[in-house]
Amino acid sequence: MSLESVRAFFAEKAPDISVIESTKSSATVALAAEAYGVEPGRIAKTLSLRVGDRVVLIVTSGTSRMDNRKVKALFGVKPKMLGLHEVADITGHEVGGVCPFGLRTPLPIYCDVSLKAFDIVVPAAGSTHSAVRITPERMAQLTSAEWVDVCDRPQEDTSAYSSSSGLGGAG
């Protein structure tokens, strides 16, 4: 169902963008990079956070790590990652396929400036086997996202970013 909501989102708002599917899982940054033939930094991972009584999505470069101090400074409270079931219930997307497109519930979306290092990024598209190729600027425009600086600078060793929690993967 989630993949269909993403397809419907693009059919309505950006019919020139096609959802691409892979036979390989793209549930983590490392898997997504391999599945779509890009470096891990180009994978746009979507973090689902509770900040106070709000839920927000923050889209970052796959090799960036969220800086809790920066997020707290932005929102005024310490962020908490949503639980696995909360993610699916609120976004309509399964963990590993979370993206800012075709959401079940309208949510505030923030794009981290780490994405601006790339001309094209590859966010998930609602499932662990789907994605889109899009410019960071167009993604922000289509989702009415606000640009923020809430991540540490990318590290050289990208293997540490393959989301052991399952929440930071490709989406």
Summarize the entry for a quick read.
With 171 residues, the protein is of the alpha/beta class. Strands 2, 3, 5, 6, 7 and 9 form a 6-stranded mixed β-sheet that branches. The chain has a two-stranded antiparallel ribbon with strand order 1-8.
Characterise this structure:
The protein has helices at 2-13, 29-36, 68-75, 84-91, 136-142; strands at residues 20-21, 43-51, 54-61, 65-66, 80-81, 109-112, 122-123, 130-131, 146-148, 151-152. By secondary structure, it is of the alpha/beta class. The protein has a single domain (2-149), classed as YbaK protein (Alpha-Beta Complex). The strands form 3 sheets. Strands 2, 3, 5, 6, 7 and 9 form a 6-stranded mixed β-sheet that branches.
Main features:
single chain; disordered C terminus; alpha/beta; 10 strands; 6-stranded mixed sheet; globular; 171 residues; YbaK protein
Strand content range: 15-25%
Q: What's the overall geometry?
A: globular
* Coarse structural class: alpha/beta
Q: What is the CATH top level name? A: Alpha Beta
For the secondary structure, the number of strands is 10
Roughly how many Å is the radius of gyration? 14 Å
Low-confidence stretches: 156-170
Count, helices = 5
Q: Tell me the helix content.
A: 25-40%
The largest sheet, given as strand count, sense and whether it forms a barrel, is: 6 strands, mixed
Spatial separation of the terminal alpha carbons: 16 Å
CATH superfamily: YbaK/aminoacyl-tRNA synthetase-associated domain
Order of helices and strands: HEHEEEHEHEEEHEE
Mean pLDDT: 90
Question: How many separate structural domains?
Answer: 1
Which architecture per CATH? Alpha-Beta Complex
| CATH topology call | YbaK protein
